[in-house]
Structures are given as C-alpha cells and as structure tokens.
C-alpha cells in the first residue's frame, strides 16, 4: 500500500510539472526586454469603500507575432487589502474566448493574502492571440492603504514568437501593483435579507412548517445581478427538507447553489441573474424553506435561523449592496402522543370502502415507485449500454444531484444529457457497492449538470457515501452533502456524513470536478482506470500536424472532419463538438489520479 501511494504521489508531481512547465521547458529566454509583454491594470489606484471590487489585468504585446499560451501567476495582498477570488479566469482579449485550461486551480491562503494560479492552452498557434485578460476580486478589510503585488520573480508568461516557444518577460514600465486607500464606511444602498415572519412554529399536531426568506428593499429602478445567503440552524432541533424559490427567482435567475446540509445545520443559496436581452433585473426574491422536527425531540425547543453570510450585487456603480439582516426563529414542539392516537383512531373508524380504496391506491403507488426505482437500478456486472434511465422518479426518496465535469465551465456547445452512474452505499458496507442507479444529467448555463433519481431500501438512521461516475470519467466518492476542496484544491472523502429523508434530497457536488479519462470502450464499458487504451484512442483523434509539400502545418477543418466525427461521443471531453488539444490536456491532467475511487 505504501509503495502504491508513493507511485501515485510521483505521478501527481510529474503531471503537475508537465502541465505547468510544458511550454517553459522548450522556451528560449531572450535578452532583457527583447520579448517583454505589457501588463495593464485597471483600476491601478483610487479611494474605495470596504466593499468587494474587481481588478482587471490585461497582458498584451503590440507585436502580432507574439502569441500567449500559458500563465503562472502569484499575487500578494498587503496591509488592508484582502484577496477574495479569481473572479474571471484568463481569456483572450478583447474577444473573451475561453481557450485556457487550469493547470493549477486558483489557490488562496486562509489569511486571504496570497493567490496563485496557472492556466495553459494547447490550441494551435492560429487560435492564439497576443493579448489575454483576467480579473481578481479584492476588498478592503480596514481603513487605510492596501496594495496587490504581482510577484515578477515567480510569474511565468509563455508563448510563441513566430514559430519559436518563448518565455515572455514583463516590461519594466508596467505598473503591476495597484494601490488603494480604503474608507471605513460604505456608500452602497442598503437592502434587506430577512425572515418574514420572524418566527415559524412547528406545532405538536403538524409535521413541518415553512419559514419564508425574502430579499427586498432595493432602491427604485435598481435590481439584483447576484446574491448569496448562508443560513445556520440547530441540527439537533430541526431538519430542512425542501427549498422552493418564488416564480421571480425561477424566471430571472440561474441557480448556482441551493443546498441543505442537515449534518451541520446549514443552507446555502447562490443565484446569478439570467443574461436575457430586454429582461429587467429582479428587485426581490423569496424562498419558502420547509423545516421539520427532529424525531428525537422530547421538549419544546427554539433555534435561530441565522443569516451567517450574505452578499448581493446589482446595477449600482462599483460596489455591492449593504445588507440589513433579520434572522429568523424556529419554535419546535415535540409530536404529542394524544395527537398520534387520535389520528390512529380516526383512521380506524373510517369506512371500510374508503380504507380499502386508499389501501389499493397506496399499494399501487408503492408498486409504481418500486418499479420505477428498480428499473433504473442495475448491477455493476450488467452491460452499461442497456439500462433505461428514469427522469421522473416516483420513489419516496429522491436524490437530486448537481455535478461539474472537468473542462466544462459554461453551457457547452453540445447540450446532450450525460448519463451518470450513481451508487449509494451505507457506511460499513463499502465492499458491497455493486448496485447502482442511472441518472440523466442536463447542462445549465453555469456549466453544471443536474439530474434526479428515485432510490429505494433507504435506512433513514444510517450514514451514506455517494459514488458518482461520469460517461468518460473516473469515479468520485462523496461523503458530504456540500463538499469543498482544501487549500491545495483537493477533496478527499473521509467519514460518511450523508443522511437521507423522505422527499427530495439535494446534493451539490459541483465544487468538485469529475476528472475525465476513463473513456468508454466497445459497448460503452469503462474499466475503472485511465490506461493505454484511453491515451491511445484520444491521441489517435487529436488533430495531427499535416504534412504539405514537406512543410508541417495545422490540419484544416475538412482534413480533421474526415476522421474525427465517429469518435466525438468517446473523446469530446469538454463537449465543444470537436476533439483537440484541450481534450488531450484534460486527460493528461487526470493521470495524477488514474483510478476510480472505491
């Protein structure tokens, strides 16, 4: 086991070195200033309130023969400035084409004072540009000065000059270190994040109640472009079982997160306004959140539904809205014995005809639920190509998944649904995960995929692992309802924490990418690893360099089309309707993992 871990670690290191240094290794360093590029920063200075804002970096050259194909950047925040995120990954400028793939995902330290990321592209020279841009989101954390510094020593910008790979320098005239003065206050408009009414009661004679969360109070004529709210509640008192957004939210926003984690007592809502021409921004939002009592509750208990974190942006100048928060309160009564007995007696005294009819309907419904669930459930020894998925599960327990596939960051060009294999394994039964369900996952505008399955034979008192395997991907093991990667950008499943309840169970796994590389063989069978077959079949269809009269050049689209079309379903990893170096680089990146997680 120890030898295997050493080997895997070695592969990971080698893969990282390859991806980050691919072009640098063959680059020719030039005399100082000869192959410099210019870095333009906007804004480069100014006075700011303590609100988040974006700093845009444009890396460019006046020489059209200089083409940029990779960056490895390190930034440091000084004094009263904090780094929030890489809010826009590198893209071509000004066309904003998405041609870059992450070699090192953006990493921010816990103190929010350093940021590192590396992106590259293996697109042919004809598709490269001499200018790219990206954005970094920052904020002031106290009044006073703050600076964002680009480390010129550790920064690498790679590219091609004519036909030669080069390592570009940064011109000495570039001001790469924007500096700001922060005021202690904020002039942004104040809006409301509130529970209204404040108190929600789950009485002794009911099983659940709805707490209403609202966003309102926007200035006249202003709207919401993004918002996020994170709530907490006492997991020992209540469980959240469903979240229903208002019609306004459904019509005007794209859902990024709508997650419940009853293991820690947390809810997260994140939404982006839809970019539809002519559609006005929404000036309010509403969510009905259904809570039920914990089955172990024996006395009247109270818990706050606290708004722990909140942000909102809109069509206002240069800042976020300020948030006026009104927390809610849940009052939970234990279920009374007398109520239960009364309900039982009432049921017993009903007419036999009604009882018989009801029983018949219940039996029929249960049978349909089992039939639907069983139809989508398969044994791992079955052929992968034959199952019929269920998109409208009838089972009492539904599992709604939100996933992200490696290489897909926005709505892909190919919007075909992706068939995913899902296994639910009870803690302690990890050796018996041969049964699984099929889920048809549909893409969204943010590049995530969503789908729902009906499941059966659930132990409501148990903890579960969820295994997910994509059609061209390695299997990933999840033990959290809302998993997050660590500071190094990895997620490793530990102890099972997932519980299931009647109705819909929402699991947002979209922060963890499903790595591509286990390509389907004949009959759509995958062999649970990335091996020579996968690399060979991918390399066969990646566009070669065509030889025309002894001169090497990129193949034309017509030349590529003659051989690539039959393999799109197998090798088009990022679903852009072509097989190219992007797909090849994605499978190489996955070599650091190589095997399905068990």
Q: DSSP helix count?
A: 8
Kindly report how far apart the N and C termini lie.
14 Å
- Number of E-state strands: 33
Instruction: Profile the largest sheet.
Output: 12 strands, mixed
Overall geometry: globular
Determine Rg (CA atoms, Å). 27 Å
What is the helix content? 10-25%
Percentage of β-strand residues = 35-45%
Structural class: alpha+beta
Low-confidence stretches: 1-32, 338-394
Mean pLDDT: 79
How would you sum up this structure, described in words?
This protein has 598 residues and is of the alpha+beta class. The chain contains eight helices and 33 strands. Strands 1, 2, 3, 4, 5, 6, 7, 8, 9, 10, 11 and 12 form a twelve-stranded mixed beta sheet that branches. Strands 24, 25, 26, 27, 28, 29, 30 and 31 form an eight-stranded mixed beta sheet that branches. Helix 5 (532-541) runs antiparallel to helix 8. The protein is globular. It starts with a helix and ends in a 9-residue tail after the last helix. The model is unreliable at 1-32 and 338-394 (pLDDT under 50).
């Amino acid at each position: 086991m120890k030898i295997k871990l050493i080997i895997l670690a070695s592969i990971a290191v080698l893969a990282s070195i390859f991806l980050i240094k691919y072009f640098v290794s063959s680059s020719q360093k030039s005399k100082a200033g000869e192959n410099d590029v210019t870095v333009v920063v906007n804004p480069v200075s100014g006075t700011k309130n303590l609100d988040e804002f974006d700093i845009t970096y444009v890396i460019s050259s006046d020489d059209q023969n200089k083409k940029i194909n990779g960056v490895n950047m390190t930034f440091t925040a000084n004094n009263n400035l904090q780094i929030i995120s890489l809010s826009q990954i590198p893209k071509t400028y000004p066309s904003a084409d998405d041609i870059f793939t992450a070699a090192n995902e953006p990493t921010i330290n816990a103190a929010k004072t350093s940021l590192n990321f590396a992106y590259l592209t293996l697109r042919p020279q004809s598709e490269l540009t001499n200018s790219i841009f990206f954005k970094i989101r920052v904020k002031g954390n106290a009044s006073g000065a703050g600076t964002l510094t680009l480390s010129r020593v550790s920064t690498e910008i790679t590219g091609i000059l004519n036909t030669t790979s080069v390592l570009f320098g940064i011109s000495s005239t570039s001001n790469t270190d924007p500096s700001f003065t922060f005021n202690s206050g904020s002039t942004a408009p104040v809006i409301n994040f509130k529970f209204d009414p404040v108190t929600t009661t789950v009485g002794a004679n009911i099983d659940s109640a709805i707490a209403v969360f609202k966003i309102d109070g926007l200035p006249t004529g202003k709207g919401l472009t993004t918002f996020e709210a994170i709530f907490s509640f006492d997991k020992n008192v209540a469980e959240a079982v469903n979240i229903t957004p208002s019609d306004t939210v459904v019509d005007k926003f794209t859902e990024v997160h709508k997650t419940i984690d009853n293991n820690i007592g947390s809810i997260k809502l994140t939404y982006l306004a839809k970019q539809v021409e002519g559609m006005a921004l929404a000036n309010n939002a509403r969510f009905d959140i259904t809570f039920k009592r914990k089955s172990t509750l024996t006395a009247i208990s109270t818990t706050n539904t606290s708004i722990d974190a909140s942000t909102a942006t809109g069509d206002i100048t240069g800042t976020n809205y300020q948030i006026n928060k009104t927390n809610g309160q849940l009052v939970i009564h234990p279920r009374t014995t007398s109520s239960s007995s009364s309900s039982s007696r009432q049921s017993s005294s009903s007419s036999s005809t009604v009882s018989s009819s009801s029983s018949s309907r219940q039996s029929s419904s249960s049978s349909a639920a089992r039939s639907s669930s069983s139809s989508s459930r398969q044994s791992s020894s079955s052929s992968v190509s034959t199952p019929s998925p269920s998109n409208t599960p009838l089972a009492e327990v539904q599992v709604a998944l939100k996933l992200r596939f490696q290489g897909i960051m926005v709505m892909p060009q190919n919007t075909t649904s992706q068939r995913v294999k899902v296994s639910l394994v009870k803690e302690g039964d990890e050796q018996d995960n041969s049964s699984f369900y099929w889920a048809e996952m549909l893409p969204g505008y943010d590049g995530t995929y969503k789908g729902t399955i009906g499941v059966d034979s659930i132990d409501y008192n148990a903890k579960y692992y969820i295994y997910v395997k994509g059609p061209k991907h390695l299997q990933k093991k999840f033990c959290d309802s809302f998993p997050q990667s660590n500071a190094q950008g990895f997620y490793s499943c530990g102890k099972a924490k997932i519980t299931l309840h009647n109705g819909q169970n929402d699991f947002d796994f979209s922060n963890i990418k499903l790595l591509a590389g286990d390509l389907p063989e004949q009959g759509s069978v995958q062999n649970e690893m990335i091996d020579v077959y996968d690399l060979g079949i991918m390399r066969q269809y990646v566009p070669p360099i065509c030889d025309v009269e002894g001169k090497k050049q990129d193949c034309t689209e017509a030349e590529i089309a003659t051989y690539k079309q039959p393999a799109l379903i197998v090798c088009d990893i990022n679903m852009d309707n072509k097989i190219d170096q992007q797909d090849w680089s994605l499978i190489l990146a996955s070599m650091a993992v190589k095997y399905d997680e068990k």
